[in-house]
Amino acid sequence: MHLLKWLYPGMRFKRWLFLFAVGVMMVSLGLAVVFNYKYIDNIEELIFRTVYMWTGTYYYMVTAVVGSVVILVGSIIMLLATRMIIRSVITVLLPDSSDKLVDLIYEKRKLNRGPAVTVIGGGTGLSVLLRGIKEATSNVTAVVTVADDGGSSGRLREELGIIPPGDLRNCLVALADTEPLMEKLFQHRFGGTSELAGHSFGNLFIAAMTEVTGDVETALKESSKVLAVKGRVLPASTEIVRLNATMTDGSVVEGESQIPLVHKRIHRVHLSPEHVKPVASSIEAIKKADAIILGPGSLYTSIMPNLLVDDVAKTLRESKAVKIYICNVMTQSGETDGYTASMHAKAILDHAGPGSIDYVLVNSGVISPELQEFYAKQNSFPVLVDEDELNALGVGFVKADIISETNVIHHDPVKLSRNVMKMVYGLKANPENMRMLDYYMTGNKLK
């Protein structure tokens, strides 16, 4: 049965096997012409005589039966030989994966047929979604915020004059298809009291690659090769920016890391400088997307900075793609205190304009009282899904269990990506999409 996997739909193998078979038949015909047809007649006569010796009678259909058996055996030999040739090459190039060659090819073909998905955001929430979405499509692009000014990223930004690499690193690792050791290496954070203390190896790697290549886009592209990334990771802009917030009391807070610390209600956020040139590839990814996902992540400090870059919000509004905002499960202390689902969505519409959201994905999973009590101590509470207010905004909403409950509350990457893909495929109905929709609803492997 393992051999028959090479004949799965979408493998792009059968066409070449057929061409190989045509070549074999042409060679066989040529040999028959060269060596005269009488030899073929002799073989046919030998078959008849052999059958007569065994049965005592002639069967005039015997040549057709024997010929069919020969064709079947020959086809199996061709398939096996072709497989072994490919296996021999792959064993040299990918020795650890040679036993799963057909599964790797099938999975690659399936992912390549997936929809073009552009995800906009930053922080840990975005990386959670990417971990799940990479199992559904390899045509995924992460457009990542560059407003981070805290921790290792902030230090590298100030010392080297580069865009903060932290969120970019998290997205690269989330989309990586590589050894766990490599992931641990990129996420490793140096301890001690030296100047390296607090820096992650991945941040330093991206910073070094940027200096070597002279361009952050090229640095991310080359880093993606090291990690065998499924998809692309792009910054919203390559310019150094600062995120500022105007509060409802009229005060202004400067710096992304400082905004949540003042514990005031945010009226609006804006970038300094006001006009920031976008990365052309990021704009193109939004234009060509079949689906655009905003979040999950911090509303004002992870999602909004991307929408404030020139042309990003405009391109988002004009896109014909399905636009989905993934609402946070819990409010964020100092940023979205007391916010409902509609208030999250309205904040995006106020900053990016009408038409920037089609649907809001909200959590319907039950959060245990113990976890609610734990988060209440941090002034964080479940986001209320106010359905009437969402409808009044002119956006649709989908309720689903998208959380993973352990000792803390996070979005579950599998649940989250499965529900996102159900929305993407369900909103664009055709036979292929219905087949994929069934896969995401049941979790059964595609055949």
TrEMBL record:
The chain crosses the membrane at residues 16-37, 57-81. One of its GO terms (cellular component) is cytoplasm. HAMAP family: Gluconeogen_factor. SUPFAM superfamilies: CofD-like. Its main location: cytoplasm. This is Putative gluconeogenesis factor. Keywords: Cytoplasm, Membrane, Transmembrane, Transmembrane helix. It comes from the Bacteria. It comes from Propionispira arboris.
